[in-house]
Amino acid sequence: MLKGKHWQNNAPASNEALMKLTSAAPFPLPESYINLLANSDGGEGPLFVQPDWLILYPAEEVTEIETSETFHGSFPGYFVIGGNGGGEAIALTQDKDGNEKVVFFDMVNIDLKETVEELAPSFEELLSLIEDLED
After folding, report:
1. Strands 100-106 and 88-94, how do they pair?
2. Cα(134)–Cα(127) distance, integer angstroms
3. How far apart are CA 134 and CA 6, in angstroms?
4. How far is Cα 27 from Cα 77, in angstroms, rounded to an integer?
5. Cβ atoms of residues 107 and 82 within 8 Å
6. Residue 116 dihedral angles phi and psi, to the nearest 5°
7. Cross-strand bridge partners of residue 107
8. Closest Cα to residue 80, out of 51, 104, 96, 60?
9. Which of 85, 89, 84, 82 is nearest to 108 (CA)?
10. Can you say how many angstroms the Cα of residue 69 is from the centroid of all Cα atoms in its chain?
């Protein structure tokens, strides 16, 4: 899935962790996201675009964020799956028609109109933004 990309893998997520994650999610998660976690429970690597770095959190951490409602009050409708290591969250969300997209936002500024920016129109597109290994 991330062959030829600058990506630091983690050990695979357990089936139990993936089941808890999908149960906690407010909408169906992209199959490519679940497949990635099944092979690398989170990980990190550089992006070609802002926010410049992608850190995907392990399934259990994402589930904890979602069930503790850490972001719900300030950032409703965003399912946080990671960050950039510099104060910005990376999240999945859906538009009113149920189409997924990946966004990032400043976790300090709660004005969503100022902070939320689209990163990719899908999780698959997000993966394509990870920098390639140099030949």
Report:
1. antiparallel
2. 17
3. 9
4. 10
5. no
6. -80, 125
7. none
8. 104
9. 89
10. 16
Reduce the secondary structure of 72-91 to three states and give it as a string. CCCCCCCEEEEECCCCEEEE
Distance CA 113, CA 90 (A): 16
* Predicted confidence (pLDDT) per residue in 9-68, tens digit: 999 999 999 999 999 999 999 999 999 999 999 999 999 999 999 999 999 999 999 998
d(CA 56, CA 34): 12
- Collapsing DSSP to helix, strand or coil, 44 comes out as strand
Give the separation between CA 4 and CA 63, rounded to whole angstroms.
Answer: 29
Which alpha helices (H) appear in the chain, and where do they start and end?
A: 15-24, 31-39, 59-68, 112-115, 123-128
Q: Are 67 and 24 contacting, i.e. CB atoms less than 8 angstroms apart? A: yes
Query: What is residue 109's DSSP assignment?
Result: -
Nearest residue to 109 via CA among 131, 89, 133: 89
The token duo for 119 is 């990163």
pTM strictly above 0.85: yes
| Residue carrying structure tokens 């920098």 | 131
